[in-house]
Amino acid sequence: MMGRGLLAIEDLEREDIELILETAFHMKEVGRREVKKVPTLRGRTIINLFFESSTRTRTSFEIAGKRLSADVVNFSPSASSLTKRESILDTAKTLDAMDPDAVVIRHNVAGVPKQIADQLAAPVINAGDGAHEHPTQALLDLMTVVEEKGRIDGLTVTIIGDIAHSRVARSNIQAFTKMGAEVRVVGPPTMMPAQVETLGVKAFRSLREAIDGADVVMALRIQLERLAGALFPSVREYSATFGLDRAKLRFAKDDAIVMHPGPVNRGVELSHDLADRRPSVVLDQVRNGVALRMAVLYLLAGQKRAEAQA
Ligand code: CP
Q: What residue spans define the domains of the chain?
């Protein structure tokens, strides 16, 4: 069961995912109104606690909270007492003492949201932790595929890129397999986890074979700032072998869609043309991120707070 927080897709049952998606489609309707606001979380407080940069996730959590009439506080680590060496855990407990109804956390170290969640009365939502998980990204990706294809069950989903270091890949592999899709992965051998098949996926060396007959082709962001030259010889070679363009995409199904969590390195993971136009659904993913995060906040911040920790 979803319980008192959302830390990982791994923790969710299929029924939890179905409830979140169903709620998100209701929330999407609110975003289509002229006045995009409902009183559902009036009087509730949500704290965004981002220790790592973000455009999509942080902004969409803020908009989601505001559309539900919650009071949203964006905590800024660089302007906080963290600069006076207050620990992350003490910072989180201090914020929890102000009685928020949910705390959204992103950190570049895997496991930090869970460590904090164990100490807080407020439900914690993982907004991405290191190479571990990014559960709301996977849920908004599911939502986008349901919108496009009407189902997940029986689809073939190919994920391209840095499977070993990607929290988006980890969460999406779990999410799509739990919902009945066949998940394939492909990328440079240096970016493939050992015994990747134990994750329930089919691994490929050839992009053409991996996307053959696929319904959904998802390219992952390559961390050029960290990994170029370390895990692949050159950006040009990566792009030639694993970058997606319309010529390579013709091996997928005729109605296949292209996804990317963003930010896109244009001309690397996706050709410029694919990044902007159908069958790319990159901006639909962003749009659905607001509705999906409204659903998660509604389901979690609407609960009664747990007893505060001693
Ligand atoms: N997809 C994603 O997490 O993007 P941001 O880093 O901009 O939040």
A: 2-134+287-309, 136-281
